[in-house]
Design brief:
288 residues; mainly beta; Immunoglobulin-like; 2 domains; 5-stranded antiparallel sheet; 21 strands
């Protein structure tokens, strides 16, 4: 699916010549056509190998003012029902890793300010691959300086403690292989209107069945008793991966004067992404 942002906060505690490294990795499911984190721009942000496709090029651009070094590797994630991600080393039930069938070059790039470079990704299918979906995430991680995590130890007073926080940025994008006979179906359920002060959210569940993930846009419309439907909320690039059969989400609804959410109804549609030929995956309504 499209890009995901990962912010790695490395806290270095220096006390009596002892270094303690703590990695805190909050994950978010933001999906964009062109994605940037820190000073790195990546395009495309979602790669799907299907049919006879065997090669893909991924463009990296350093948008910063300093030369930067980025390492390229694979990470494995499973999705949870709330849309979060957890790092795993072994595939979950219904999940296959894609990286054994992929080659990437180069695995490390150095980019001057405003410089761009292409990463080449090649698929090498195996004849014994089972039908379905294979997924891994290509991870671009910034490397800071030559000393560990960009930090230099200074001074000789070991009786004092100092704390330095160094942000290390990275971007992870899903790489998906679909092979053999593949299909999925989706439904929408549990529509509820949630009011939080002046903010109103539409809560719901996407249910997925099949041997591949689903991916697309969610569009909420207000339908009055009389008159035309009004678009009141959109979320693009939403995926439900094969590690879950459902995903719980919410959409923040636009606060429009022409919309009275005490009457009428809300229609929610799950469709193909707007850059693909249109298809309706699922729809549901909530009477107000």
């Amino acid at each position: 699916m499209k890009a995901r942002i990962y912010f790695l906060l490395i806290k270095i505690i220096k006390m009596k010549n002892f270094l303690l490294l703590l990695l805190l990795i909050p994950l978010s499911g933001i999906n964009l056509q062109l994605h940037a984190q820190g000073d790195l721009l990546v395009s495309p942000v979602r790669v799907v190998f299907e049919g006879k496709k065997q090669k893909e090029e991924i463009s990296l651009v350093n948008t910063g003012t300093d030369t930067a070094v980025y390492s390229v590797s694979f990470l494995q994630y499973k999705m949870t029902e709330d849309g979060g991600f957890e790092i795993i080393t072994k595939p979950e039930a219904g999940q296959n890793f894609a990286d054994p069938y992929l080659r990437i070059f180069p695995r490390k790039v150095t980019l001057a300010p405003r410089e761009a470079q292409v990463i080449r990704l090649q698929l090498r299918k195996s004849p014994d691959m089972a039908a379905g979906e294979y997924r891994s995430h290509l991870y671009f991680r910034a490397e800071k300086g030559k000393s560990p995590l960009g930090m230099e130890l200074k001074g000789k007073d070991t009786a004092l403690m100092s704390v330095q926080i160094t942000p290390v940025f990275g971007i992870s994008i899903p790489i998906i292989i679909q092979t053999g006979e593949v299909k999925f179906t989706a439904t929408l359920s549990n529509l509820q209107l949630e009011k939080l002060d002046t903010v109103q959210n539409l809560k719901f569940t996407i249910n997925r069945m099949g041997n591949i993930s689903c991916y697309g846009d969610l569009i909420a419309e207000y339908i009055p008793a009389q008159g035309k439907a009004i678009e009141i909320g959109v979320v693009r690039g939403v995926a439900v991966y094969t590690t879950v059969n459902k995903r719980n989400l919410s959409i923040k609804l636009n606060n429009l004067k022409a919309v009275d959410l005490s009457k009428g109804k809300i229609k929610l549609r799950y469709t193909t992404a707007k850059d693909l030929p249109f298809a309706l995956y699922a729809e549901a309504e909530l009477a107000l």
